[in-house]
C-alpha cells in the first residue's frame, strides 16, 4: 500500500513540475533545456556538447514533442507561437506582443481564436488548458518509477531526425514550422507547414525482417500522400520479450530467456519435434510490430528472430537509448537527368539511377569495418547488370562493383569518422504486373554496420495507360 502511495505522490510531483516548466517557457525560452532534462532524466551528452547546438536540439525536441502529444493542429500552433517555435515569432521579446500578433494573424484560420478585447489574457487561458492536457498525457506516457527519474525516450528519435536532416552538422538557426495562416505558395522551401495532410496509406519495409538476438534494425515506413512524409507514427511490439521497438521504429531482437528455453526443451511436444528433426519454436520466434498514424491508419509488420544463428552484442540495452552512429540516405533520378530527387515520375522502359550515401557519424569516433549494403527492389523494377559503382575519396570516378547489390548485398569497405561513400546502380522500369493508372514503386536500400541495419527509400511513380 505504501509503495502505491509513493508512486502516486511521485507522479503528482512530476506532473506539477512539468506544468510549471511548460507554462514558464513563453516567459523564458531557455526553459526548453529544463523540459528536456525533466522528460529525459538527464541532459543529452555526446553529439551536442556546444551550448548553442544543444539549444537547437532542445528546440527540435520540443517541436517533435508538441507534434506528437498535443491533439489538434489549432492547439499545437497556439503553443508553437507562444514558445517562439513558429516561423516569424522567434524574435519577439515579450509574450504579450507575441499573443497580440498571433491573435490578429490567426483569426479566421485557427478555430480557437476569437476577436478578443484582450488577446494576451485570452490566449494565456487557452494555453493553460492545452498545457494541462499535455502534462496529463506526458505523465501517463513517461514511465515514472520510484527509483528512477522519468524518461519519455524521445531524445534518440530527435537525434536521428536531426542527423538525417542535417548530415553536415546542425545549422546556426533551426528552420521553424510555418504558420497555417500563410498561403502555401508563400512558404519558403526551407520551412515546413505546421499542419500536414492526414496519412492515408502506410508501406513498411517490403522485405521480410529476420534478425538474430542483439541485432538492431531500423523499421522505416513509406507514407501516402507524399506531403505527409514527416507525419509522426507510433510503433508497438506485440511481444517485447522477442523484439522491442523504440518510439521511432528502431527494432532490437531480444535474447531468449534461459528459464523459458529450458521449460520448452523439456516439453513432450518439443522432444517429439527434436526427435523428428523438425524446427521448433525454440529456434525461431515471430512477433508483430503495429504501426499507426494519427489519422488512425495502421499497418502490421511481422519480425522473426532466429536463435539458431548465434547472436551479436548490441551497443545499448534499451533500444530507446540508441544514438544513430551512421546515416543512410537514398536519391533517384532518370538516366540523363543531372539532379537527384526523393521520387521520380517514370514509364515502362525508362531507366533510372539510384544512389545511396553511407556516412560514419559516430560521435565516439569509432571506425566502421566491413560496411555492407543491399537494395530491395520492388516488382516492376529490374536491376541492370554491371551497373553498380562505388564512389569514395579514393575512387571519385566510380569503382565498378560486383552484381550483388540487388541480391545478398555487397561490402563497400571500412570508414572512419565523418567518412562517406556513395553506391550507385541503374534499374529499368518493366511491366510484370502493372495496372492501368499510376503505381508507386518503393525501392529500399539497407546498410549494415556491426549488427545495426539502417535503411532509406525512394519512390518511382509509374504511369500505365
Describe the structure.
The structure is a single chain. The protein is an alpha+beta fold and 465 residues long. It contains 9 helices and 22 strands. Strands 5, 8, 9, 13, 15, 19, 21 and 22 form an 8-stranded mixed sheet that branches. Strands 12, 14, 16, 17, 18 and 20 form a 6-stranded antiparallel sheet that branches. Helix 2 crosses helix 3 (51-69). It is globular and about 70 Å long. It starts with a helix and ends with a strand. The relative contact order is 0.10.
Protein topology:
Elements: H1 2-24, H2 31-40, H3 51-69, H4 73-82, H5 95-106, H6 119-141, H7 155-165, E1 177-178, E2 192-193, E3 201-204, E4 209-211, E5 216-218, E6 221-224, E7 233-237, E8 243-245, E9 250-253, H8 258-265, H9 268-276, E10 284-293, E11 298-306, E12 326-334, E13 343-346, E14 351-360, E15 368-376, E16 381-383, E17 389-391, E18 399-400, E19 410-415, E20 420-429, E21 437-449, E22 452-464
Parallel strand pairs: 1-2, 4-11, 5-22, 13-22
Antiparallel strand pairs: 3-6, 5-9, 7-10, 8-9, 10-11, 12-14, 14-20, 15-19, 15-21, 16-20, 17-18, 17-20, 21-22
Helix pairs in contact: 1-2, 1-6, 2-3, 3-7, 5-6
Amino acid at each position: 500500500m505504501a509503495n502505491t502511495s509513493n508512486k502516486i505522490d511521485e507522479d503528482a510531483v512530476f506532473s506539477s513540475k512539468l506544468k510549471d516548466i511548460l507554462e514558464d517557457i513563453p516567459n523564458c525560452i531557455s526553459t526548453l533545456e529544463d523540459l528536456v532534462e525533466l522528460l529525459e532524466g538527464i541532459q543529452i551528452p555526446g553529439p551536442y556538447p556546444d551550448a548553442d547546438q544543444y539549444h537547437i536540439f532542445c528546440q527540435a525536441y520540443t517541436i517533435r514533442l508538441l507534434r506528437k502529444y498535443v491533439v489538434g493542429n489549432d492547439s499545437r500552433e497556439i503553443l508553437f507561437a507562444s514558445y517562439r517555435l513558429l516561423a516569424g515569432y522567434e524574435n519577439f521579446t515579450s509574450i504579450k506582443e507575441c499573443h497580440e500578433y498571433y491573435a490578429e494573424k490567426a483569426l479566421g484560420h485557427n478555430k480557437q481564436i476569437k476577436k478578443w478585447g484582450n488577446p494576451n489574457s485570452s490566449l494565456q487561458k487557452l494555453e493553460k488548458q492545452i498545457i494541462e492536457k499535455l502534462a496529463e498525457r506526458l505523465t501517463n506516457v513517461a514511465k515514472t518509477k520510484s527509483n528512477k527519474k522519468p524518461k519519455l525516450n524521445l531524445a534518440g528519435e530527435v537525434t536521428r531526425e536531426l542527423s538525417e536532416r542535417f548530415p553536415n552538422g546542425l545549422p546556426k538557426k533551426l528552420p521553424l514550422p510555418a504558420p497555417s495562416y500563410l498561403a502555401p505558395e508563400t512558404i519558403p522551401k526551407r520551412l515546413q507547414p505546421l499542419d500536414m495532410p492526414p496519412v492515408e496509406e502506410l508501406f513498411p519495409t517490403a522485405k521480410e525482417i529476420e534478425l538474430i538476438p542483439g541485432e538492431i534494425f531500423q523499421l522505416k515506413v513509406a507514407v501516402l500522400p507524399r506531403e505527409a512524409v514527416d507525419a509522426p507514427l507510433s510503433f508497438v511490439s506485440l511481444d517485447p520479450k522477442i523484439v522491442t521497438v523504440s518510439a521511432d521504429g528502431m527494432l532490437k531482437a531480444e535474447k531468449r530467456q534461459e528459464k523459458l528455453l529450458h521449460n520448452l526443451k523439456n516439453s513432450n511436444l518439443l522432444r517429439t519435434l527434436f526427435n523428428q528433426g523438425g524446427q521448433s519454436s525454440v529456434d525461431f520466434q515471430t512477433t508483430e510490430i503495429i504501426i499507426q498514424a494519427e489519422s488512425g491508419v495502421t499497418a502490421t509488420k511481422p519480425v522473426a528472430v532466429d536463435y539458431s544463428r548465434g547472436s551479436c552484442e548490441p551497443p545499448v540495452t534499451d533500444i530507446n537509448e540508441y544514438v544513430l552512429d551512421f546515416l543512410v540516405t537514398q536519391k533517384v533520378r532518370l538516366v540523363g537527368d543531372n539532379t537527384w530527387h526523393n521520387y521520380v515520375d517514370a514509364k515502362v522502359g525508362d531507366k533510372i539511377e539510384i544512389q545511396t550515401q553511407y556516412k560514419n557519424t559516430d560521435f565516439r569516433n569509432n571506425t566502421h569495418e566491413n560496411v555492407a549494403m543491399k537494395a530491395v527492389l520492388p516488382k516492376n523494377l529490374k536491376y541492370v547488370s554491371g551497373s553498380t559503382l562505388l564512389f569514395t575519396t579514393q575512387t571519385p570516378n566510380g569503382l565498378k562493383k560486383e552484381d550483388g547489390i540487388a541480391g545478398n548485398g555487397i561490402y563497400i569497405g571500412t570508414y572512419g569518422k565523418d567518412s562517406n561513400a556513395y553506391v550507385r546502380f541503374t534499374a529499368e522500369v518493366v511491366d510484370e504486373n502493372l495496372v492501368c493508372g499510376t503505381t508507386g514503386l518503393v525501392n529500399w536500400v539497407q546498410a549494415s554496420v556491426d549488427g545495426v541495419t539502417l535503411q532509406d527509400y525512394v519512390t518511382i511513380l509509374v504511369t500505365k495507360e
